[in-house]
Amino acid sequence: MLQRFFIFLFVLNSLSSAAQHTAEQAESYYEKGAFNKALIIYESLAKQYPNSYNYRIKLIDIHQQLEQYDKSETIIRSILERRYNPMIEIMLGYNFQLQDRKDRANAHYENAIAFTDEHPNYIYSIARKFEEYALLERAIQVYEKAKVLTPQKDYSIQLAKIYGDLGNVEQMFSNYITYIAYAPSHINSIKRAISDFISENSENENNRYLRRQLLIRIQQEPSTYWYEMLSWLYIQEKAYQKAFIQEKALYKRQPESLYRIIELANLAHTDHDDATAKTIYNFILDVTQNLGAVLSAHQALLEIDTKTADPQQLEVIDENYKGLFKTYGKNERTLDLQLAYGKFLAFHKKDPNAATTFLKQSLTLNLTKFEEAEIKLLLADILVLQEKFNEALIFYSQIQLNLKNSPIAQEARFKVAKTSYYKGDFDWAESQLKVLKSSTSQLIANDALDLKLLISDNKYEDSTQTALKSYAKADLLAFQNKPKAAISLLDQLLKAHQGESITDQALFKQAQLFEQTKQFDKAEANYLQLIKDYRDGILADDAHYHLAELYRNALDQPEKAKDYYEIILFKYQDSIYFVEARRRFRMLRGDFIN
Prior knowledge:
Largest sheet: none
Number of helices: 32
Radius of gyration: 33 Å
C-alpha cells in the first residue's frame, strides 16, 4: 500500500514538472510575441487543468492580443458564471473597450465600482485592476469613493502616484501632503518620491505648487513635519537662509536635538553660502553647550573667515585658535581643531615650521592608530609644501604599512604617487597609480586614473620631459596655495610648448586657477580655447561642463550655460558630467524633472 502511495506521488510530481516546463515554453513564446504558438500550448494546459484560473487569464490576454475578442469574451463570461468577481467584470469591460465599444465598457466598469458599496474591502483590488489597464481616471474614481466608504483608511499615497503618472503635479503634491498628515513617519520616503518633480529654481511652477500647499498647512495646523518639509524644499533650492528660518521654528518646538541645524550649517558651508553658514554656526554656539557641536562650529567659522582673510585678519584668526585651545585644551576631544590649526599655520600663515612643531605635540596624545595617521598625513603634506619630498614619503609609507588596505592607507599611497610626480619621478608615480585604479574609494580611483593619464600621455614627449616637469611644478605651486605663481608658470609653459600634448591640460589647470582667483573672464577664455582646439580631446567634456558652470554661477549668463549643458547631452553621453548636465539643462529650461 505504501509503495503504491509513493508511486502516486512520483507520477504526480512528474506531471507537475512537465506542466511547469510546458508553461515556461508557452510564456517564452508569449514574451517573443509568438502569440499563436503560445495559444496552442495554453489551450492544451487549460483543458488538462480546467480549474486553473491562471491559464484561463492568460488565454484571455492572448486572444485580445490576436484581436479575437469574441473568444476572450466567452472565457471571461464562463469565469463570471461560476462566481462573480468585480475584477473579472473589469476585464469584460476592457474587452469591449478594445473593440471601441465604450458604452458597454463603461457599463461594466460602473458595475464593478458599484460593487464596493456593499463590499468596501474590494476597493484596493478594483482600483489596482483599473491601474493595470491604465484606466487611471477610473482608479481615481474608486479611491475617491473610498474616502466616503472607508474614512478610517487612507488611499492618498495611491492617488498621489496616479496623479504623478497623469502629470497632474499639483494634485500629486496635495495627496502626498495628505499622506504625510496621515503617516508622518513616512516623510522621508515622500521626499524621495517628489524630489524628481522639483528643481533648484524657486520660480519653477512645481516648486511654487509645493511651497504654496505647505504654507497653507502651516497656517492651518503648525505641525513640525510641515516646517521640516518646507525646510527641505528650500534646501533643494539652495535657499539655506530660508531653510534656517524653518529649522529654527522646528528647534523651538523640539529643542532636544541640534542635529538638523548642524547638518544645514555644514551643507551651506560646503555649498559656499558662507554668510548663511556663519549665521547658523553662531546660532549653534548661542543655544548649545554640547562640546562636539561647539568645537565644530568654532572650527567652521574660523575656516570660513580664513578664506578671505588678509595678513592682519590672519593674525586675529590665529589668536582665536589659541583662545579656543586655552578654553578647551589640547586633548583628544579637540583633535579636529588641532588638525585645522596645523593646516592654517602651514597653508595660510605660511609658517610650516610652527605647524610641524604644533602637530608633533598632538602626536603625544593618547590616540588611536587612525587618529595618529591623520596627523602624520598632514605632517607629510606640510613636508611636501616645503618640498622636503623624501621625508614626506617616509610618513606616507608609514601610514600605508600601519593601516594596510584602509581608506587612509589608500589616500597615503595616492599621495606617495603625487609626491613622486612633484619631484619628477614619473615612473615610480605611475607604478603606484596603477595599483590605485582599483581603489575602493571612487574619488581616489578617479584621481589616480587622471594623474596616470597625464603622466603616460606626456612623459614621452621629449627625453628631458621638460613640459611635464613644468606642469608638475605648477601643480605643486597650486598645492602650496600660490595660485598666481602657478598661473605665471603655466603661461610660460603654454608659450614654450605650444601645440604639444600637454597644452590642453595646462589650459584646463590654468582655467581652474583663474576661477580660484576670481579672474572669471580669463577662465572663460581658456575653456573656449580648449573647446575650439581640442573638441575631440580627453578634456572636452570637462571644458564644456566647467564653462557651463562658470556661466551659470559666476558670470550669471544662464542661457549660455544652457547651451553648453546641451552640448554635453548630445555629444558626450559617456561623460561623468552627463547626469548633472541633464539636470542643470532641464532646470534652466524650466522643465519639471521626472
